[in-house]
């Protein structure tokens, strides 16, 4: 009986010591979900900065806009980096999640890219233009088309605008709603496509060079800036604050400017 008690106490003490040692290790590990390009590439630069401060950054790549938020909400990620705040807000509302923006990091201008038609001047009547089918990004694409005089939108629709909110369409353009990740692949089937910056880069399109039209920097850049998102309540996490500091560093900003040549614009 005495041996059993001693053994039990030894096991409990060992587990307690292990638990006590695991917390500091956890506090130095940061798991972040990200789109492969440019987010994961940017995080690799931040990883070097964090390593010098004793943090280990683990980057998990996602190729869609849904799983990174669900995985963050479930607790399997500490943060994610792939979306702008209007999308995050809409996702929270639709999925009853409680994710927050830690900081705005960079902006990716949307662009209109040529498919079967090479220029806006040559765009025929009844042309087909593909746009993202997700909330806020579709509105953003339609607003870009409106800025070129191709359509007019109901002003009350705002960032909730869809093809149904088009009030004037002189060329009778057919707006084709497609999953954002598939837009670049659709170019051979449509006259043009309005493509998210990260998916353009993944398709080897350079927004600064290949886009027929690119969102201007005087458009609402802060509104559509890509953010580092976390669960509500984690805003005071020291390791996430360290990650924000790394992402806002001059080294990361210079990397964005040098590598992406205007396709990714750091937020000051």
Q: What form results from the Cα inertia axes? A: globular
Give the overall pLDDT as a whole number.
90
Distance between the termini: 67 Å
Beta-strand share of residues: 15-25%
| The CATH superfamily title of the largest domain | Periplasmic binding protein-like II
According to DSSP, the number of beta strands is 13
Described by strand count, sense and barrel closure, the largest sheet is: 6 strands, mixed
Per CATH, which architecture of the largest domain? 3-Layer(aba) Sandwich
CATH level-1 class of the largest domain: Alpha Beta
Strands of the widest sheet, in order across it, are 2-1-3-12-4-13
Number of helices: 9
Could you please describe the fold and organization of this structure?
This protein has 268 residues and is of the alpha/beta class. It has 2 domains: 2-108 and 222-266, 3-Layer(aba) Sandwich (D-Maltodextrin-Binding Protein, domain 2); 111-214, D-Maltodextrin-Binding Protein, domain 2. Helix content is 38%, strand content 22%. It has 9 helices and 13 strands. Strands 2-1-3-12-4-13 form a 6-stranded mixed β-sheet, sandwiched between helices. Helix 2 (36-51) links the parallel strand 1 (29-34) and strand 2 (56-61). The model is unreliable at 15-24 (pLDDT under 50).
């Amino acid at each position: 009986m005495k041996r059993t008690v001693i053994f039990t106490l030894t096991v409990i003490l060992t587990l307690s010591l292990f638990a006590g040692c695991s917390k500091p290790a956890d506090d130095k590990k940061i798991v972040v979900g990200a789109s492969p390009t440019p987010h994961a590439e940017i995080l690799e630069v931040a990883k070097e900065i964090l390593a010098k401060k004793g943090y280990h950054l683990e980057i998990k790549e996602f190729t869609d806009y849904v799983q990174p938020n669900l995985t963050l909400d479930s607790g399997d990620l500490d943060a994610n980096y792939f979306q702008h705040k209007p999308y995050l807000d809409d996702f929270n509302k639709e999925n009853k999640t409680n994710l927050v923006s830690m900081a705005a990091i960079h902006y990716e201008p949307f662009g209109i890219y040529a498919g079967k038609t090479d220029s806006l001047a040559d765009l025929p009547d009844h042309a087909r233009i593909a746009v993202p089918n997700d909330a806020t990004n579709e509105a953003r694409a339609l607003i870009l088309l409106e800025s070129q005089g191709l359509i007019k939108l109901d002003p009350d629709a705002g960032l909730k605008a869809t093809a149904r909110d088009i009030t004037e369409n002189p060329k009778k353009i057919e707006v084709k709603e497609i999953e954002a990740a598939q837009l670049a692949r659709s170019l051979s089937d449509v006259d043009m496509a309005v493509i998210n910056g990260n998916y353009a880069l993944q398709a080897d399109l350079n927004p600064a060079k290949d886009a027929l039209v690119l969102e201007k920097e005087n458009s609402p850049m802060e509104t559509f800036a890509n953010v580092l998102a976390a669960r509500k309540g984690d805003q005071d996490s020291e390791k996430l604050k360290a990650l924000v500091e790394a992402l806002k560093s001059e080294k990361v900003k210079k990397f964005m400017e040098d590598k992406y040549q205007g396709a990714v614009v750091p937020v000051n």
